[in-house]
Amino acid sequence: MIIYNVTIKVQHDAASDWVQWMKNEHIPDLMNTGLFEDARLCRLLEHDEEDGQTFVAQYFCKSRKEYDAYIDTHATALREKAFQAFGDKFVAFRTLMEVL
User: Which of 10, 21, 24, 58 is the most exposed, having the fewest neighbouring CB atoms within 10 Å of its CB?
Assistant: First the structure.
């Protein structure tokens, strides 16, 4: 199992709209690629929120093959949609993990 982990810091004035956008648009778009088994959106607690709220989106796929297909085929367009919707109101840090 592979976990595509995206940590996102969202400015306070955009956080509520961003959460709704993630739940109603981005996560469904990503799941509609057919490459992921599940998704989870969390808010990071006990973390410095001076510059904004921090969230973690986790997307689960069976193998590296599905993840690579997502990156090669869908990632650029979905990331662009985020920038069109929220511009510089967020910053994202991506990591890839393997469940042992």
Answer: 24
